[in-house]
């Protein structure tokens, strides 16, 4: 059985060569893939296919990616949305995220990066599809709420579990303190950002990460977990 068997992906782009390239690559990874050349077709496919993840190009004729994403959220569709655009413009990024997109990528991008972001969305929103998730020396068992590091179960508080899970599934990405607070503590958290530092310090102790090679601090930017 392939690792991603049973995971449904919808690709929406008006450029046929991009659709074909991504479709072949993702099918090879074991995903069940459907494609659509425009927004209206994407909605029709979604009703029947019910994808777990939708990869939406923003600039399309007729109904664009923003409108498709907004429709998903208005209908309370559970699909995770990754938006694509050829423009590296902050306004597009902010607009996409503000209407409910879960992630954002700028063309051109590598297939490996897209695959990593799809997997991150699945681990975040559909952990049951993947069962135990292995990332380097980490194994996340979402059903038992356990994380193993080098095959040893870590003794974690509920908040430590949520924080470490968030770092692991987004490994290689820089996560700012506000991003971590919003995801782990919730948007209505009224405490200080320094609470993140306290929990990071505790995780480093439990991982034996004295030299900060696993959970790295990027001064002025945030934290990044590296798989070593």
TrEMBL record:
Coiled-coil intervals, chain numbering: none
One of the GO biological process terms: regulation of DNA-templated transcription
OmpR/PhoB-type domain residues: 130-227
Source species, domain of life: Bacteria
InterPro entries: CheY-like_superfamily (IPR011006), OmpR/PhoB-type_DNA-bd (IPR001867), Sig_transdc_resp-reg_C-effctor (IPR016032), Sig_transdc_resp-reg_receiver (IPR001789), WalR-like (IPR039420), WH-like_DNA-bd_sf (IPR036388)
Domain Response regulatory: 8-122
Portion annotated as DNA-binding: 130-227
Protein name: Transcriptional regulator
Organism in which the protein naturally occurs: Paenibacillus durus ATCC 35681
């Amino acid at each position: 059985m392939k690792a991603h068997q049973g995971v449904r992906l919808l690709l929406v782009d008006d450029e046929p060569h991009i659709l074909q390239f991504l479709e072949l690559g993702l099918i090879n990874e074991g995903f069940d893939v459907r494609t659509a050349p425009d927004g209206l077709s994407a909605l029709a496919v979604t009703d029947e296919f019910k994808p777990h993840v939708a990869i939406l190009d923003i600039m399309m004729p007729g109904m664009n990616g923003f409108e498709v994403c907004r429709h998903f959220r208005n209908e309370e569709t559970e699909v995770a949305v990754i938006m694509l655009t050829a423009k590296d413009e902050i306004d597009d990024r902010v607009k996409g995220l503000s209407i409910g997109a879960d992630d954002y990528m700028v063309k051109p991008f590598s297939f490996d990066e897209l695959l990593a972001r799809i997997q991150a969305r699945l681990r975040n929103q559909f952990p049951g599809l993947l069962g135990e998730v292995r990332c380097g020396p980490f194994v996340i068992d979402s059903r038992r709420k356990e994380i193993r590091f080098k095959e040893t179960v870590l003794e974690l508080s509920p908040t430590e579990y949520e924080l470490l899970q968030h770092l692991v599934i987004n490994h290689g990405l820089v996560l700012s303190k506000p991003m971590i607070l919003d995801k782990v503590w919730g948007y209505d958290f009224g405490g200080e950002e320094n609470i993140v530092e306290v929990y990071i310090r505790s995780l480093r102790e439990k991982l034996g990460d004295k030299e900060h090679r696993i959970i790295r601090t990027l001064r002025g930017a945030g934290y990044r977990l590296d798989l070593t």
